[in-house]
Amino acid sequence: MKAEGLLFMSRTRPTAGNAADGTFQITLLAMDRMRPNQVEPWRITWSGEDARAFWNTSQAALTPGQPLRVVAQHLQGFSARHIAPEIHAHAISIQLAPRSTECTRHQSPQPQATA
Fold first, then answer.
1. What is the DSSP code (8-state) at residue 8?
2. What is the pLDDT of residues 18-69, one digit of tens each?
3. Nearest CA-CA partner of 109 in 36, 6, 1, 37
4. Per-residue pLDDT tens over the stretch 25-36
5. Residue 11 region, left (φ>0) first, then alpha (ψ -120 to 50), else beta?
6. H-helix or E-strand spanning residue 51
């Protein structure tokens, strides 16, 4: 399953470093604004050279509320005691979206079946 849509950076700072196999990796927490008073957290991991290039050019812009256009796969619901449920996913691509009133409209990630 794959999803595409607009998410918004949370207050949690993204992290970057090397995975166990040495591959560069970013992990960020973003929010899906489902309704005016309802958000769904997404923990997104992105690995590889595209992730490194994005991090190098966009790190300073990854501030709370920054809109992101995300294409992700391997979606998995995760819930643990004392932690709000969240979606875990692996990014295929992430791009900064403009901070405009149009971006604040409901544009949830839409699941798409993949072959």
1. E
2. 999 999 999 999 999 888 888 899 999 999 999 999 999 999 999 999 999 9
3. 6
4. 999 999 998 888
5. alpha
6. helix 49-58
> Which of 82, 93, 11, 81 is closest to 44 using CA atoms?
93
CA distances from 60 to 14, 15, 104 (A): 11, 12, 21
Instruction: Decide: helix, strand or coil at residue 11.
Output: coil
Contact between 12 and 30 under an 8 Å Cβ cutoff? The reply is: no
Q: Which two tokens stand for residue 6?
A: 């607009």
The whole-angstrom distance between residue 87's C-alpha and the CA centroid of its chain comes to 10
d(CA 17, CA 24): 6
What span, in angstroms and rounded, lies between the C-alpha atoms of 114 and 8? Answer: 25
pTM for the model:
0.82
